[in-house]
């Protein structure tokens, strides 16, 4: 029997047949779970509700005439349904989540305890300022430390996510150009070909035209190509640093100087701040605006659409254009400056106005400040150092069987391509599906697009050496199996997942978004 070094079978044929049939569809603790619509009774309810009496129709004649069509479940049925679904989902609390460019790090439970304190968790968004002094002080304190960590004089706390923070930064740049009378003249935004997809999308949303900057042979921005594209119609540049290839842009200061000399602004995508927090201040690199993913750098792994927060730090040149509202401290009391009629707002210059309702994401603010205060200055610096150390350890362990995309050390994520799979018949997607059978969520696949068959691994600082070694051993085993000609098993993977490989293309093109009850046999005829 073929075993890996943990003693587990590595081939479906070496273990119990994954396709074994059972009466229930269950396979031991792998419970087959139907849709709630199929479990529940559409005509009934798990709750006894009295028919309303003496009520008049307040719906303007739009009262429902037929059943709502939702499944009625008892409490045990509802609990079991959602617990079983949760057990099919991979999570950071189950094992490493190696998604590159996403920073899925451990969320300390201390953060959750603090975020659930009644004064924060129960605070209503429309509470008067007099009843929210602690929350406003927390926001102001967090803003102070974000400015300290980045070396920037101002920060907008209201953006709800990274892309929202990008929008804030680019809107501030556009407002600054309008104040200079150059909004109609400076219409081009430069972006490296390895940029996050949200970068060009945000620039276009703000009315700019995007031009791509090629990379050089080391995976970084080609400085000379950048300089050739500069002109008096350039509004600015959007650069991620460390970039999406997991590399630090060595020419970052020269890039900033060249863009500033041409009259443009420098927007830095802060998605990868987890690699340099406490080590480098973006303000010292010439950055004019940078969003910070609190849910990446300062814990609370994101997923499922939220929660997120993307405060955006601004340079002295862009600070006057920061959005409303923002926290102020006057006569020992905290408040929100929400309108241009406020004297302080009038003094601040030409703010771009309100970016969003309310003021950011309180739960994320609480967790982020808790993370900062529990780690301290030295701890944040060490977290960045350990994230880089772990990524380089993974790079060193895997390069004997897999192919790194670029020579030399990386920052917080290691990038591989599919050259090691050449002539094996195994593709990047097959490798990813085989990782699921080994109990791992695949790394980021096919991104960045500048690398063919990309596999981007970000272990973060959260993983111990034991976890990293087990992860690397699993990938090395898969690479050796692919080279040994076990193509068929890769094409069949995943074998041990609750569902086998899906037709993802067909699912994306023809999604089934509404459940319909199965037709009766006589109706089908």
Automatic annotation (TrEMBL):
Keywords, comma-separated and alphabetical: Oxidoreductase, Pyridoxal phosphate
- In the record, what lineage is assigned to the organism producing the protein? Bacteria, Pseudomonadati, Pseudomonadota, Alphaproteobacteria, Parvularculales
Q: For the Aminotransferase class V domain, which residue ranges apply?
A: 183-303
EC number(s) given by UniProt: 1.4.4.2
UniProt GO molecular function: glycine binding; glycine dehydrogenase (decarboxylating) activity; pyridoxal phosphate binding
Domain Glycine dehydrogenase C-terminal residue range list: 383-487
Descriptive protein name: glycine dehydrogenase (aminomethyl-transferring)
Pfam families, sorted: Aminotran_5, GcvP2_C
